[in-house]
Amino acid sequence: MAKKQFKAESKKLMDLMINSIYTNKEIFLRELISNASDAIDKLYYKSLTDDSIKINKKDFKIEISVDENNRTLKITDNGIGMNLEELETNLGTIAKSGSGVFKKENEHKKDIDIIGQFGVGFYSAFMVSDKIEVTSKAYGEKSAHKWVSTGIDGYEIKEANKDNYGTEIILTIKESTEEFDYSEFLNNYKLESIIKKYSDYITYPIVMNKSVRELKDGSEDEYIEKEEETTINDMIPLWKRNKSKIKENDYNTFYSDKFFDYEAPLKVIHTSTEGLVSYNSLLFIPSHPAYDFYTKNYEKGLQLYSSGVLIMEKCAELLPDYYNFVKGVVDSEDLSLNISREILQQDKMLKTIAKSIETKITKELTDMLKNERETYEKFFTTFGTNIKFGVYDNFGANKDKLKDLLMFISSKTKKFITLKEYVDNNKDSDSIYYCCGETIDKIDNLPLVENYKDKDIEILYCTDYMDEFVLQTLMNYNDKKFVNISTSETDLSTDAEKEKLEKHNESSKDLFKTMQEAIPEVSTIRFTNKLKKHPVCLSSKGNVSIEMEKVINAMPTDEKLNAEKVLEINENHEIVKKLENLQKENKEELKKYTKILYAQARLIEGLPIENPTEVSSLICEVLSK
Ligand code: ADP
Fold it and tell me: Which residues contact 394 (CB under 8 A, 6 or more apart)?
């Protein structure tokens, strides 16, 4: 039979595996055992909804055995098995999980790292083997097939004999070299320790034939050696174990194995809840977003177990959207095993668990904010947008639960501050001032901000495009209303100052009329006393702010927004005299000045200038006078 070629991507990964100088080669066993365990899960799960499948849960096992003479290591399971087609697609290409991670990480990580950090699955066996033979029989099928590969040049599949359903993998272990002692993978003690290390929590027995010494019948000092099947793993899943006996490293290994993350989680939440429903949960807040977190392929959800048996890989109903970054496992004895997805969605128990989980995550984050500020800030930098989304989503239905988890940058310290901290810092103020912009520096340099700094008023700097929507959803916090300092209505001046300004504006109507002819897109032009040094600024009237205009217009939709713009001119600036003179003497010149001033205001706000060539020649013209 002709050799078949691996898919290009699989080849790349295999090449890495075979030629890897990565020292942590032993993880191949973990990968094969976890595949075997998944295959058993699948069969068991299927048996729950299919009466024709007659199996006894007690018979499930994963066997490991060694033939030192032939240098082979055999891993056998009685799981669901694979038919011809499945052998072809599953082992001829890298499975989804592995390849996605591989591609993404390969962009910026060194090749060698990938192998150790991810569950790259079946292919990792090539790190230690010259040849791999997979004989498999799918449950319920008559024929078995054998897949054989000696590496990168391809694989063959042929019919084979196998009595029982399931999969048997035989690895021919590489000869030892000066650099690496491959023979250790033929040593039972070594294998046992690898299994203990990585696969202790696998819920099916991992058995090995071990030789044990027993006293000979009737003898007191004579022993006989006997081969005996021994279960190596503890089988109690991590989430069911006593918290006090679990080391941080156990959690981290479990997390990286199960959720393919090379970085330790930021927080582990391990709970055991009794009550309306009893469940154990082991939840993780990752340190960074999953590689596909921002794509539409990302699916939220927790693994759902019923009494230690996996019933759903990703149960979305267990997490609210804003906590979609949380990974983990939920195990409840109160959930029926043969529950279908449809029933599950309406299941009252499940809803109760979901609610309880949400409360636990919120509490954990609240505690983190209180007791581990630095960790929380790291969390917020990574997943803060989620919290904001939670406040904003669903017309603010969850805003009260989440508002105290929000943070913004303070104008005073340029560090994160919560709303509560802002209110505590500014007890005398009945407003919470904020200003939006692209970066902290850009906001900090806005002409409008100067006045607030002078008066020692703290401002929240909002650099996330969602911030403004979030604050508008909240409307107020502890009875203090949010005030955007860049709306034209916001005014810090005294009544006397206001009156003086009003008069000045009133008497300058003609001036503004001429100016407006030059920039008809601006709805209002007027003097302001908000500015100190700068001649002009742009603010907005009504519901759409300039920041919102920027955000919405940057989106790839046809819907474009226009904020109602107000050009505010610093009434104490020298330019005012010039403008007033031009109004009397040269209206055409005044219009040119207006265009330049408006362009300046747009620039400062970070808005594009629609006609840069015109503005540029106007500036030159004025400069050359
Ligand atoms: P992953 O486990 O991440 O999906 P692998 O490369 O380890 O990737 O395995 C590819 C696929 O091959 C698995 O998804 C599974 O469908 C199948 N497979 C591997 N080992 C077994 C096994 N022992 N029994 C049944 N199917 C298996």
Answer: none
Q: Please give the C-alpha separations between residue 171 and each of 232, 367, 605, in angstroms, as whole numbers.
A: 20, 49, 65
Q: Can you give the length of the chain in residues? A: 625
Asked if residues 138 and 80 have their Cβ atoms less than 8 Å apart, the reply is yes
More confident residue, 310 or 72: 72
Q: For residue 94, give Cα distances in angstroms to 36, 112, 334, 494.
A: 17, 18, 37, 70
Closest to 119 measured CA to CA, from 313, 254, 300: 254
d(CA 567, CA 597): 9
**Relative to the CA of 31, which ligand 1 atom is closest?**
7
Tell me the pLDDT tens digit for each residue of 227-262.
888 999 988 889 999 999 899 998 998 898 788 888
Mean pLDDT of 441-465: 91
**Residue 609 CB partners (closer than 8 Å, separation 6+):** 599, 602, 603, 615
What b/e string do you get for 156-186 counting C-beta neighbours within 10 Å, with b at 16 or more? Answer: ebeebebeebbbbbbbbbbeeeeeeebebbb
Q: If we measure between CA atoms, which residue out of 21, 38, 34, 26 comes closest to residue 81?
A: 38
H/E stretch holding 331: strand 327-331
* Substitution candidate for ligand 1 out of 122, 167, 199, 313 with most atoms within 8 A of CB: 122
SS3 for 546-597, per residue? HHHHHHHHHCCCCCCCCCEEEEEEECCCCHHHHHHHHHHHCHHHHHHHHHHH
pLDDT digits (tens, 9 = 90+) for 309-367: 777 888 999 999 999 999 999 999 887 655 555 566 668 888 999 999 999 999 999 99
Pocket of ligand 1 (CB under 6 A): 31, 35-36, 39, 77, 79-82, 90-91, 94-95, 97-98, 119, 121-123, 167
Query: How does strand 480-484 pair with strand 431-436?
Result: parallel
* Listed residue (75, 59, 76, 63) closest to 227, CA to CA: 63
Residue 253 to residue 235: CA distance in whole angstroms: 16
What does DSSP assign to residue 71? T
Q: Which residue from 254, 276, 287, 272 is spatially nearest to 330, judged by alpha carbons?
A: 272
Question: Alpha carbon of 115 to those of 9, 22, 27, 342: distances in Å?
Answer: 15, 8, 9, 38
Residue 410 bridge partners (DSSP): 460
Q: What is the mean pLDDT of the chain?
A: 88
Centroid of chain to Cα 281: 19
Q: Which two tokens stand for residue 89?
A: 């697609």
What is the SS3 string spanning 399-451?
A: HHHHHHHCCEEECCCCCEECHHHHHHHCCCCCEEEEEECCCHHHHHCCHHHHH
Task: Report d(CA 330, CA 355) in Å as an integer.
Answer: 13
Q: How far is the CA of 103 from the centre of ligand 1 (A)?
A: 19
Tell me, in angstroms, the distance from the centre of ligand 1 to residue 35's CA: 5
Q: Rounded to two decimals, what is the model's pTM?
A: 0.68
Q: How far is CA 101 from CA 1, 38, 107, 513, in A?
A: 33, 19, 10, 61
Q: Tell me, what's the pLDDT at 267? A: 97
Contacts of 263 (CB under 8 A, 6+ apart): 286, 287, 288
